[in-house]
Amino acid sequence: MGFEGADPGTVRPGGRTARVRESVLRAAGDALAEQGFARLDLADVARRAEVGKTTVYRRWGTVTGLVADLLLDMAEQSLPRTETGSLLGDLTANARLVQRTLADPRQGALFKAVIAAATCEAKTAEALHRFYDIRVNEWAPCVQQAIDRGEVPEGTDVHEVVRAVSAPLYYRLLTSGDRLDEAAADRAATAAAAAARAGAYLRGDAGRA
């Protein structure tokens, strides 16, 4: 569910406008990872990206506007879901993508900065919520396919299962300081899959029944 798989700095086609956006967003990500949200400055981002300050101010306007676009770009560039034919296989693929993202020194620091900012900046919080909505919606069909195969009960909340996979990994990132390795990712996937099969994520009346 994190920024999964795309290499920072990947240039997409689209001419000068797209190249400027890519440069500015890469610079913004670097600055966030190095300095945190509180010290993020549009003029500094423009300098890092080697573009005019006027361009950055005109297009993004505010730091929160720039971070919102950065999160949108990250969601757009994230790798599509993996379909292995089993719920555990799919959730493990998701967990390992999230783990690699959060264990990366740059990306882990970037997410810490954005999450910290989201606790006190409403627009940043909205952008972060949109980012995760996009990523959860990308992976939710894997759980629906498991329902269709009979692996998990009808009425399972597919979005909650996907969220349950990455939750322990973000907990490690933000609170415990424990090593964030593939073993942790695999445990998170195994736990979410087992809970889903047991009916832990049934919605509403289905869960109460």
UniProtKB/TrEMBL annotation:
Q: Does the keyword Protein biosynthesis apply?
A: no
Q: Which PROSITE patterns match?
A: HTH_TETR_2
**Keyword Transcription regulation, does the record have it?**
yes
InterPro entries noted in UniProt: Homeodomain-like_sf, HTH-type_TetR-like_transc_reg, HTH_TetR, Tet_transcr_reg_TetR-rel_C_sf, TetR_C
Sorted alphabetically, the keyword list is: DNA-binding, Transcription, Transcription regulation
Against Gene3D superfamilies, the record matches this protein to: Homeodomain-like, Tetracycline Repressor, domain 2
Q: Where is the signal peptide?
A: none
Q: Any idea which residues the entry calls the DNA-binding region?
A: 41-60
What are this entry's molecular-function GO terms?
DNA-binding transcription factor activity; transcription cis-regulatory region binding
> Residue limits of the HTH tetR-type domain?
18-78
Write down the PANTHER family for this protein, in alphabetical order.
HTH-TYPE TRANSCRIPTIONAL REGULATOR RUTR, TETR-FAMILY TRANSCRIPTIONAL REGULATOR
What is the name of this protein? TetR family transcriptional regulator
Q: Which organism is it from?
A: Streptomyces griseoviridis
Q: What is the lineage of its organism?
A: Bacteria, Bacillati, Actinomycetota, Actinomycetes, Kitasatosporales
